[in-house]
Each structure stands twice: as C-alpha cells, then as structure tokens.
Amino acid sequence: MITYKEAGVNIEEGYKAVSLMKEYAAKTTGNLVLNSLGSFAAMIELPEGYKKPVLVTGTDGVGTKLDIAFKTKKYDTVGIDCVAMCVNDILCHGAKPLFFLDYIACGKLEAQVAADLVKGVSEGCTQCNASLVGGETAEMPGFYREGEYDIAGFAVGIVDKDKIVDGKDIKEEDALIGLSSSGFHSNGYSLIRKVFTDIDEIYNGQKLGEVLLTPTKVYVKPILNVLEKFNVKGMAHITGGGFIENIPRMLPKGLTAVINKNSYPIPEIYERFLSLGITEDELFNTFNMGIGFVLCVDKSIKEQVIKYLISLGERAYDIGFITSGDERICIK
C-alpha cells in the first residue's frame, strides 16, 4: 500500500508550516477580523464611516524574482513583494487595503521556508495596515521541482464611491509627480537574470543577490495621507510594462503623458543594460526606471504635493505633464 507521504506529500510538515505561519498572521490581525486562522473561511467586518463603500480587489505574484531567493536561500522578503504588488495596484483607485490572502505552491514543502515566505507577507501587510486572514499552501510533487516555490496573493481594499480615483478629470497641463522606487521591485527579472548572472558579485558594498532581492516599496501610507489633503486625479503603479504601459492606463482618451527623463535621478544600475546594447526604449517598457508610483494633479498644487510627500520621507519629483494627443506617452 502506498501512503500519501510516499507519494510525496508530507501532511505533518504541512501542519508544522501552518503552526509557524499563525504567529506571523496574528501580528497583522486588525479589529475587523472576526475569526482566526484555522476556519474554512475568513470573516471581515466592513469599517464604519463609509457612505457608499466600494470593495476594490487585486491579485498578483512575485514572478521570476523568486529564482534569486532560491539561489540565495533568502525567503523572507519576497512576501513583501507579493503584498506590495497587490496593494499598490488597488491604491491606484484610492482604496485602503483591508485584508490579504496568500497562495504558496511547491514540489516538496519545507515548513521553515514556507514560514519565511509568510513572514514577508506579514511584514508587507504590516506596512499597509492590512490583515493577513488566510491562504493556501499546496504541496504538488512532480509538478514543481524540489526547492522551488511560487507565491501569489489577493488583496481587498475599500473606498467611498464618491472618492474613487479613476482619471476621468485629468486634463491638459495637469502635472505628473513621480515617487522613487526601492529598486527593480518585482518586474523584469527574466531579463535581469540574463544580465546579472553572478549574484555573488559585489555591487555598492553588497552582494548583487541581496540588491536584487530589495523588496517592492509599499506606497499605501504616504499616498493615503496625500489623498486626505489633496485632490489627486489619477495614479499609476509602475509594474510590468514600465512607464510605457502603466502611465497611460490612468489617462482618458485623447491625452498624452509627457515624461522628462532628466527630471529625476535614474539609478546607475541601468547603465549595465545600456552597455550590453539594450535600448532605452526597452528599459522604459520593462522597468520602473527608479519611479515606482505616479500621481496626476492640477499644476496649481504640484509643488505643495511634492513638498508634502518629501515631509513624509518620500523622494518625489516633478516628472512631466499632460498634453493633448493620441501618443498616450512621450518620453523625452
């Protein structure tokens, strides 16, 4: 008789993983969570104070950045990426994150590795005041290779219907404000891994693998503060597709975003790509190029917003403006 364990699934290791994960989930539990991990489903009470509450959802993963985690055997930061990729997306519509769920899949479960992944998720949730309310850990021998994991997540946020940010009021001459990224975030790693082949190389005093694992910045707290004080017309999270794909997503038809690439310091690390013949257009279409989040505001309040963001500890720049036209985006 063949047992489930002999088939490759160790239930006891799964129990151990859940036990370790509960500690990290408990650190994020807010007063709207009505039950704890272990139930068949999580129950969340909607907060008071919303006239017409709208739930806003987003889901994403970490992508091939995980390969760097496998090679360095450092697993406790990519969970932050997973959360950031989701909550920064729903933030673009003015939503405040409420709760988060994760999904982890692997070929052979190692409880400590899975717990380290969730430790990062917990940290990401803490950074945006979201509750980690549940998830799934799937052990699939023969489907994933041993030692490799995948992680994805799902975020739910809330915004008043009258305060949804959707770009509809954006007009000519509005200003574009860019907030610095913390690194590559979690996009473009299929290209990054072809360019940076030696993760033990020392770059600015750190091993390159550590640099490449720098977590995606969570923009929730500073942006929610901005939304309380200023009228923000549109927002864009610079993820896969870089400037080229993401900035136009907030624009009404007939308008174009003009970006001044000399308006902020592009990180020096991108010189490595240029030296290998990768074009600047390709870089702006793949990476965040040092800007992870973009706001569109009336030009009359541009300086006030930038000054306020700087007071919150952000590096914020006047990176461009809106004009008429069908190009959608122009980088010059």
From TrEMBL:
One of the Pfam families matching this protein, by short name: AIRS_C
Primary localization class, coarse: cytoplasm
Cell compartment(s), UniProt: Cytoplasm
Location of the PurM-like N-terminal domain: 52-159
One term of GO molecular function: ATP binding
Reaction(s) catalysed (UniProt annotation): 2-formamido-N(1)-(5-O-phospho-beta-D-ribosyl)acetamidine + ATP = 5-amino-1-(5-phospho-beta-D-ribosyl)imidazole + ADP + phosphate + H(+)
GO process annotations (BP): 'de novo' IMP biosynthetic process; adenine biosynthetic process
Enzyme Commission number, as recorded: 6.3.3.1
Keyword tags: ATP-binding, Cytoplasm, Ligase, Nucleotide-binding, Purine biosynthesis
Pathway(s) per entry: Purine metabolism; IMP biosynthesis via de novo pathway; 5-amino-1-(5-phospho-D-ribosyl)imidazole from N(2)-formyl-N(1)-(5-phospho-D-ribosyl)glycinamide: step 2/2
Keyword presence, Amino-acid biosynthesis: no
Domain PurM-like C-terminal, chain residue ranges per copy: 171-326
GO cellular component, one term: cytosol
Family of this protein: Belongs to the AIR synthase family.
UniProt-recorded name of the protein: Phosphoribosylformylglycinamidine cyclo-ligase
Organism, as annotated: Clostridium amylolyticum
